[in-house]
């Protein structure tokens, strides 16, 4: 096979062999953007490929040279619910294979396929560790929609006494639960509803609609998390009447315990002003230290415009680790640009 041939695989055609080849390619790219991180384990990616949500369409286009993937495009799109206009795009070319037009070729395949399915917008992300990504996005007709940073907390940098201070509470009726084995059945519907608070996170100029989380989606994501070899810890705050008022979650892979990922954090508007966000974050940091003594850092991604969350994170000790930009491009504009150039 030459490096100009493109292979397509949808979510029904994924194999363990492909997962291994894809992860080898991704690890070569990861060495460029995250040289100090451990490599991804193919077993985790294959595990997730076998447990994809039934409402998710996942497609890969690859360019291969002697059985080695040198470039790929991946799209994912949900078939029900909101944002039916949108397809998320990941496009990566190995450093040694750049400058040959492979990215443009793959973008054309992905854009035409999404157009045929009625998708009108492509959305992807770049980071400042790989400047070639931003340059490609601009040439391809994408526009920046959201600026953010991956922020990192080194656990040794947490100020002395801060966790005690943030977890010492007045007798105001709020209580905290920590779940280490998934969301309890009795709280599933309420937790799914609570997750909709994340629609209030800044989206800046992104053409994205609010997403309504369902209980089925919560369970599907729990399955996907476990299939990827991750352990998840969720902390929730209950209001004085027992209803859920706020949440935060973290996860890590026991096989690679040093790096912990911070996911959602949110408090319902009616319950803000009680320092619940700080309580949640501090409580979950304590759970990380208790359950994963080999953890050394926590990483999270925040919009640069998310002042309230950045204030909490900065006070806790998070510092900028990597800048990233979310780009969006109308499918018609992307295809027109490819034809012109």
TrEMBL record:
InterPro entries: Acyl_CoA_acyltransferase, Bact_Acetyltransf, GNAT_dom. The keyword Transferase applies. Residues 13-159 form the N-acetyltransferase domain. GO terms for molecular function: acyltransferase activity, transferring groups other than amino-acyl groups. Keywords: Acyltransferase, Transferase. It comes from the Bacteria. This is GNAT family N-acetyltransferase. It comes from Deinococcus xianganensis.
